[in-house]
Amino acid sequence: MSLHLVSVVNSTSLIHPGFSLMNFDGDVFLFGQKGWPKRACPTGVFNVRYKQGELKLRPVSFCNDSCYLPPLRCPAVTQLAPEKPESCETEQYFIHGGKTPNNELSDRLYIMSLESRGCNKKVTLQCVEKELMGDIPEARYGHTINMVYSHGKKACVLFGGRSYMPPGQRTTENWNSMTDCSPHVYLIDLDFGCCTSYTLQELTDGQSFHVSLSRKDSVYFLGGHTLASNSRPPRLFRLRVELLLGSPALSCEILPYGLSLTSAIVTRLGPDYEFVIVGGYTSESHKRFECNTVVLDDSGIHIMTRETPEWTGEIRQSKTWFGGSMGEGSVLMGVPAEGRQALSESNYFYIVKLRQEEELGQTCSQESTDQEQEDSVPLEDSEEFYFNREPDELQDDDVDDDTYNEEDEEDESQTGYWVKCCLRCQVDINTWVPNYSTELNKPAMIFCSKGEEGHWVHALCMDLSEDLLVCLSQENTKYFCMDHMEVVQGLQTPPQKLLPVKHPPMKNQHRKVPVKLKMSPAKKSFIRRLFE
């Protein structure tokens, strides 16, 4: 076990406590950045590249059919790996809950998978939200989620965490106060998204920031913190899940020799069920400098003390530390640079390597392979062929032109999608959430045709419905915002007042007119006397 100090080349402020790491085929991805994503990396997911003692963050894009994924701190993350290496199943990560930069808690379940990989290691991910039904777990953070396999089926087990007080008990004084979630075990069916809640008599107190390890049909819970008693008892539970044909059967067993820890980092060593627990806390003011090896097999769980690295003075003197597992026996750790205002970086970062001997063997093998490639005859330019490669992928892998640099970010409060479009503008880069179904990571905008150049305004600020927004985007019609609508109407030429056209009724040519006889008054008097 060795400890190496690394320097983060770019965007050190994005790595903060509560982030998560995912590993797809050896590529490490950071999720849960500080603050809301910006234009240079709208997904908020970065590819972490470690080379020659330097850590670089490269922005990662999502495919077109992905959903919006907010940056979540302290979510529950688990990996769904193919049961057999030769199978065609896609490696996936399940992300549930977490806290947004606005301190809002999430109750959604996201599925992250690898969509495609470019020829120069450019990766595209896919993020899909899984719709849940039934006994949906409440919004929470600091909990765990694990995969269980039984009778040819698989499911997710969710347990623990913290949440805000219920709406009826939440007042102005305790608005941000947290409470332990109920000690219920949630079983999530991955095919249909059905959630079922179970109550076990062995689980009486809620716990959060604990460690959970799973193998086949068993899940082991170690440590954890209980807010009600403000304690970290040395707990160890074994939860067994049998996915029977009718209804699942759950049983819990309390095991001895538990561990007192919270917020520890767990990394897996190889394909076997061998794990290493690093870091964490034993109390609010004491960090846990011990390391343990945990082995899971058919007989149960085995916890052994492991050699610890030589912790530096910065690590021992710091009050807090944080980190995540990079996979293959490596852990990324960060400690605040307390009392060092002269430093531009706010944190120190270290990489703890737990498999140094194997890594040296891999390095020697890689060096011999490189030597064999150098001895081979190079191809001429005309003999090099590239199939299914984009022009931007034909770049040297050592040239990090697309490496994310926070200093290159524009002030998006004045330009682009985050401009203040009017006096009533409601869009804020720090609090914006999607409102229309067409929005992913940027607010919908519409062009106002006032003036020669015009300007862009947010559809939300103009109170446009989604149907009207789609209609205006498809039709070739001019649109004027609320501020310029009256001005444009005033510039229009008033309509002329025209006299109504009189249409006299036309005489009917076939109308029968009664015959009128012209008689003198004397003759009329004679005829009247004649009839009388």
UniProtKB/TrEMBL annotation:
What are the start and end residues of every segment in region (Disordered)?
A: 361-380, 387-412
Acidic residues: compositionally biased ranges = 369-380, 393-412
Q: Which InterPro entries match?
A: Gal_Oxase/kelch_b-propeller, Kelch-typ_b-propeller, RAG2, RAG2_PHD, Znf_FYVE_PHD
Q: Does the keyword Lipoprotein apply?
A: no
Q: Where in the cell is it found?
A: Nucleus
- Domain Recombination activating protein 2 PHD intervals: 416-494
* Keyword match Nucleus: yes
Q: What keywords sit in the KW lines?
A: Chromatin regulator, DNA recombination, Metal-binding, Nucleus, Zinc, Zinc-finger
Question: Family per UniProt?
Answer: Belongs to the RAG2 family.
What is this protein called in UniProt?
Answer: V(D)J recombination-activating protein 2
Q: Which organism is it from?
A: Huso huso (Beluga)
